[in-house]
Design a protein that fits this description.
With about 250 residues, this protein is an all-alpha fold. Helix 1 runs parallel beside helix 3. The protein has eleven helices and no strands. The longest helix has 30 residues. Helix content is about 75%, strand content about 0%.
């Protein structure tokens, strides 16, 4: 029932939709005519509805956290929301509420730990953290190698079904396990440098949206592994970093 799009898992689709929604916020702020506003309403509605239909909790949480940060920055910087942007936000919010009303049993089910499917999902993710120490201790400095996390799990605990060996659903732990402390330090340096670009122009709309998109990507990474383990996720991460750098250019 979950929307997959053209991706192997709905969570990946949800991640793309979350980044797309932030990108729409950038586009909407540049609208100058009624025709552009009408055209922008179509993707706003589609993205809002599709975000719900992915039933991706990570994508939902990332959008909530991201837009709370954006509104906080606008309040602190005393920046008013453009009138056409307000209209687009209202339409998007109404689309979210309407879709949620139709699918509210399925939405509440995603947050019900007592259900069998959700219980299995939670237990799997919690157990992944318990195995991380064994993988990390194998080679703390350089890691077990990019893409080799599941092979390390198989070597530590052989004999299970293939589907039982999954990357940990947290890219920060996954990166630390696969490329070690040195690689993780380089990764954090990259994140810090990109964040600094947005922070320097945080009084501008581009800087605010850059910080928002960065928080969205980080939140997605806290709940899943595809931003590091799968090529669609890697492409999304690189694209997101490019957008942040582009939006953070001084004007």
């Amino acid at each position: 029932m979950r929307a997959y799009g053209s991706f192997p898992h709905p969570n990946i689709f949800g991640g793309f939709i979350a980044v797309g929604i932030v990108s729409l916020a950038w586009f909407v702020r540049t609208i100058k005519t009624k025709k552009q506003l009408i055209i922008s309403v179509i993707p706003v509605v589609l993205f809002s509805v599709t975000l719900i239909l992915t039933f991706s909790r990570g994508a939902w949480i990332s959008i909530i956290v991201g837009f709370l940060l954006l509104l906080s920055l606008m309040f602190v910087r005393r920046r008013a929301i453009p009138s056409h942007a307000v209209l687009a936000m209202v339409i998007g919010f109404v689309s979210l509420i309407a879709t949620s009303f139709v699918f509210y049993p399925q939405i509440f089910a995603r947050f019900e730990p007592g259900l069998r499917v959700e219980k299995i999902s939670i237990e799997e993710r919690v157990s992944q953290y318990s195995w991380f120490d064994d993988v990390f201790k194998h080679n703390p400095l350089f890691g077990v190698g990019p893409g080799a996390y599941t092979f390390a799990l198989q070597a530590i605990d052989p004999g299970k079904d293939a589907w039982a060996y999954q990357p940990i659903h947290n890219i920060f732990f996954l990166i630390l396990g696969e490329i070690g402390i040195l690689g993780f330090a380089a990764f954090l340096y990259l994140i810090l440098r990109v964040d600094q670009l947005s922070a320097k122009v945080s009084k501008q709309a581009g800087g605010m949206l850059g910080l928002t998109l960065g928080v969205v990507l980080i939140t997605l990474g806290l709940f899943d592994h595809y931003l590091w383990s799968l090529w669609p996720g890697l492409a999304l991460g690189v694209f997101g970093i490019f957008l942040i750098m582009q939006w953070s250019r001084p004007t």
